[in-house]
Request: fold
Amino acid sequence: MSREMVIGVDLGGTHMRTALVDRTGNILRRQKAASGISFGVEQTTRRLVAECQTMLGAAGKFAGSVVGIGLGVAGKVDHRRGWVVFSPNLPAMKNYPFGPELEKTLGLPVLLENDANAFGIGETWIGAGRSIHNWVGLTLGTGVGGCLILGGKLWNGDDLGFVGEIGHMIVSPGGPRCTCGLDGCLEAHASGKALLEFVNAAALRGDLSGGPLFELWNEGKLNAPGVYRCSVVGDPIAKSAFARMGWALGLALANLFVVLGIHNAIIGGGVSAGWDQFIEPLGRSLAEHSKMLVVEDAVVQRSSLGDDAALLGAARLALQHYSSVPSYAC
Amino acid sequence: MSREMVIGVDLGGTHMRTALVDRTGNILRRQKAASGISFGVEQTTRRLVAECQTMLGAAGKFAGSVVGIGLGVAGKVDHRRGWVVFSPNLPAMKNYPFGPELEKTLGLPVLLENDANAFGIGETWIGAGRSIHNWVGLTLGTGVGGCLILGGKLWNGDDLGFVGEIGHMIVSPGGPRCTCGLDGCLEAHASGKALLEFVNAAALRGDLSGGPLFELWNEGKLNAPGVYRCSVVGDPIAKSAFARMGWALGLALANLFVVLGIHNAIIGGGVSAGWDQFIEPLGRSLAEHSKMLVVEDAVVQRSSLGDDAALLGAARLALQHYSSVPSYAC
Reply:
């Protein structure tokens, strides 16, 4: 009998990550390609199909057979039907039967889940959340995703198509405009996009007075890693951008901890690479905004699976649904 | 065999309500006495013991025997040990073994629970929450209490001694000072105390220009029902106080709904009697601060048990723990 495998996909606002994953969570092969807010439905689908076909070809080399595909997508998804309802970072996919379309082309069952929920499933399966009963998950990327793991399981709420959308908690009413259209969301403070907008606003105010951050901005090369590097070397605007991020994250976590009566959070996503620049202001803000919680008991840690968390979670879902061997709930 | 009964108590910041309750939730006798932030431990205990003794006497008339006492208390409680850890409205009770002390005096087992959690258990047992799987509970009184009912059960989180403390979510960073010491909590906008503070600040600014609200304030007779009556007859300051309350409640619910992926809330507590003055601004705020949620799906309703919700919930807990007849989880 051939070795059962799945393809896990993390389709974010900037990249699509694809991996061939076995039943124990080993990644046998991985790939990364560009995605983007300007991509149309066809372009995204074509690219993703090509990525999956490469994985299907590779499976043979490992004497494996792919039994299904798990796909984590940023935004609101209808996971029962496999539709993307609304994705702020993939606007062309609005109300699109992405799962069924991929199934038709690839001839394999496809399971869709919100990417931050996939992150939560991944970290609970073989990551930092393995031994934590209740925790809040945050993914910092182009946007800010979130999930709740309650009683060791992904919390699905009333199955409304959205859940754990911590990025769209309003932390500062009347604050910066979010991609979703509301003002003051966590995402508008703590995402990669928010970092860039903060620097951009400073530049337009004339507050960038030379230096490497100004250079990046002036050359149109500003990105989150660039802001991070400038923060590390002490640029005050870059440092303020990360301080605001930490402040907003600390406030959101303080609010969630007091309501949920819990004290664990796991933070992942590409922009969490800036950890050393925002964790201190995060801790300060969490302490300042907490009263019931004994702040020393709070545990805010980094994802241990890094960029692989969401695709491993998506793979785990596909294994649970399509494997012939029964698996256990994560 | 005598009919098993319990005593349910709701010990709030202003009143202590006591009731004799049978296994099906019938209230056979009820009483209400004053409590207060200035009461010492002895005074509160003496008064509560007297209330319970009256109930014990009454039980005989119904051919009943009291098997235990359930006590809902505002604040942080250690329900395993029966201690009050910290109660903003009963500061003298800090780290006080209230349950064991009452047990000693009354010779009956006593169970302590946070009063808003007791509210949630009551409404789930025989109230508005009976057929709702997941909901957010809010109690508007001297303070603002909260609870989460998830999967039909009271959510206890990590058993940290606080949970569902929605009143201490910060909805407006840097906003009005809360009793807890933080700035901008929901409680500092949506409690009875917040209504009075709003009017008081307006008076000190000289914004109360005659009329019944000014009279109340001037005579030192300002209370939440008074602010309500003035709002009903169109006093602009009283209306603004309730508008701010509705705004803050709508924002807090929008944040909770998007994170929990649910769409039901039940609001109780004495100050929820001002419903017609805050529900419209609440609905507007919920709509303005929601994006993922289809706002028409949101259901925000009033407690159906009114002032009895918390004492019935406390009674239910006592029945579950001390009755000789097995009962079913609520």
Remarks:
- Chain B touches chain A at residues 76, 133-134, 146, 148, 150, 155-166, 168-173, 180-182, 251, 254-256, 258-264, 289, 291-294, 297 (CB under 8 Å).
- Residues 189 and 273 of chain B are 16 Å apart (CA to CA).
- Residues 132-304 of chain B form a domain with the Nucleotidyltransferase; domain 5 fold (CATH 3.30.420.40).
- Chain B has a mean pLDDT of 94.
